[in-house]
Write a structure and sequence with these properties.
EC number: 6.3.5.9
Pfam families: CbiA, GATase_3
Pathway: Cofactor biosynthesis; adenosylcobalamin biosynthesis; cob(II)yrinate a,c-diamide from precorrin-2 (aerobic route): step 9/10
GO molecular function: ATP binding; cobyrinic acid a,c-diamide synthase activity; hydrogenobyrinic acid a,c-diamide synthase (glutamine-hydrolysing) activity
CATH superfamily of the largest domain: P-loop containing nucleotide triphosphate hydrolases
Protein name: Hydrogenobyrinate a,c-diamide synthase
Number of domains: 2
Radius of gyration: 22 Å
Strand order of the largest sheet: 3-2-4-1-5-6-7
Distance between the termini: 37 Å
CATH topology of the largest domain: Rossmann fold
Strand content: 25-35%
Number of strands: 21
Structural class: alpha/beta
């Protein structure tokens, strides 16, 4: 399939990838193009801004969580009907899992056969930007760097020096962005504040990014570069096909949303629907009851620690979740919400454990083994997940998962809860298991 596409990469985190990628998505959309937004890796926050910019769900591409073979199919699924796709990278372009480039921006660019736009922070350097760009362009000949966007340029003279050096190195300059503190987004302990928590401020921020990129970058040249990508020999991912056919219409699966629970992959809801579920979103901050007919719960990631007082104050919903006896799948924030307490505030009490904020960031990919059956897991199965949190849970009893150097989680006949974020596209049977057990909650299938 032919999908015009490009990957926005950088030498290091903090270079301006999100500024360029999000602004480019919004600027191209403003010009009438249908834009497909994507993000390399397990990040949940950037895709929220991408969704605002493009008007479509932001989707993640992660070879570690889903397998290399699904990256192109998932990309094509998300890009269906679009004129151009923009993929924001992660960290430095060649930074992958451990001491490899597996699951790096470069890895995904290779899997998509997509040209790369390198965003270089030009602050405190001039001619050296050409050495940086040349090094990244030649480090791996399998990755095609199609041009450079200079970020944080200080003056006309600074821009001229950088452009001249890049011309000597044979590197096209596709944009030069001046320093502009007005376009920065607020951050806190795990990165940017999610877009869902700060509307309409987030909408205004995206509009500023669009204007900045439109006046600073050569949009026509960027689109030409995207259109230089060759056909992608893959079949688009399809949730029904992933499950072996369409499930029978039936149970309501309630999915937590709102400002406290903003993390989730778009493919999860698509798989649940393909398995026959009716997906209903509820907000634990505002809704005092679960959606009518709820047969299963999904409580994903987010920032419940920021909203602990409000979650605790919603006693009617906490009581209903505590009494709910259908299957529950909870990740990270959902785990905290199910605990007995979070930072001294009463939560739902479905997980026998107490959660609290810490000063330690826990971050990284995990290859875990399930130690027992639960709605999602089967004892002995291996799962690939990702941890990203500054909280800790003191559990009662044995963990649900174990991996080299660690263990975590709680599981019983009704509950699967842990810090591990899983991407169900790589394990579509998880959606099927949840829906099947919701039809007969007392039987694990």
């Amino acid at each position: 399939m032919v999908v015009p596409r490009l990957v926005v990469a950088a030498p290091a985190s903090g270079s301006g990838k999100t500024t360029v990628a999000t602004g480019l998505m919004a600027a191209l959309r403003a010009r009438g193009l249908r834009v497909s937004p994507h993000k390399v890796g397990p990040d949940y926050i950037d895709p929220g801004y991408h969704a605002l910019a493009a008007g479509r769900p932001g989707r993640n591409l992660d070879p570690w969580l889903t397998g290399e073979e699904l990256v192109a199919p998932l990309f094509l699924h998300g890009a269906a009907g679009c004129d151009v796709a923009v993929v924001e990278g992660v960290m430095g372009m060649f930074d992958g899992k451990g001491d490899t480039d597996f699951a790096s921006t470069a890895h995904v660019a290779r899997l998509l056969d997509a040209p790369v736009v390198l965003v270089v922070d030009a602050a405190r350097q001039s001619r050296s930007v050409a050495a940086v760009a040349h090094g990244f362009a030649t480090f791996d000949p399998r990755v095609r760097v199609g041009g450079v966007v200079l970020n944080r340029v200080g003056s006309d003279r600074h821009e001229q020096l950088c452009r001249a050096a890049l011309a000597e190195a044979g590197m096209p300059v596709l944009g030069a962005i001046r320093r502009d503190d007005a376009v920065s987004a607020p951050s806190r302990h795990l990165g940017l504040v999610p877009a869902a928590e700060r509307e309409p401020e987030a909408v205004a921020a995206v509009d500023r990014l669009a204007a900045l990129v439109a006046r600073s970058c050569d949009l026509e040249a960027l689109v030409r570069l995207a259109r230089s990508a060759p056909p992608l020999p893959a079949v688009p991912w399809d949730p029904a096909r992933a499950l072996g056919g369409q499930g029978k219409a039936g149970p309501v699966v309630a999915v937590a949303g709102g400002a406290a629970f903003t993390f989730g992959y778009a493919e999860h809801a698509e798989l649940l629907r393909a398995a026959g579920a009716q997906v209903a979103v509820f907000d634990p901050l505002r809704d005092e009851r679960l959606p009518e007919g709820t047969a299963a719960l999904v409580v994903g990631g987010g920032f419940p620690e920021v909203y602990a007082a409000e979650l605790a104050a919603n006693e009617p919903l906490r009581a209903q979740v505590a009494a709910f006896r259908g299957p529950i799948a909870a990740e990270c924030a959902g785990l905290l919400y199910l605990c007995a307490e979070l930072d001294g505030r009463r939560m739902c009490g479905r997980v026998p454990g107490v959660a609290r904020m810490t000063d330690r960031l826990t971050l990284g990919y995990r290859e875990a083994v399930a130690l027992r059956d639960s709605p999602l897991t089967r004892a002995g199965e291996r799962y690939r997940g990702h941890e990203f949190h500054r909280t800790a849970v003191a559990y009662e009893g044995a963990p649900l998962f174990r991996w080299d150097g660690g263990a975590d989680g709680y599981g019983d006949a009704q509950v699967t809860a842990s810090y591990l974020h899983l991407h169900w596209a790589g394990r579509p049977e998880l959606a099927q298991r949840l829906v099947s057990s919701s039809r007969s909650p007392s039987v694990l299938r």
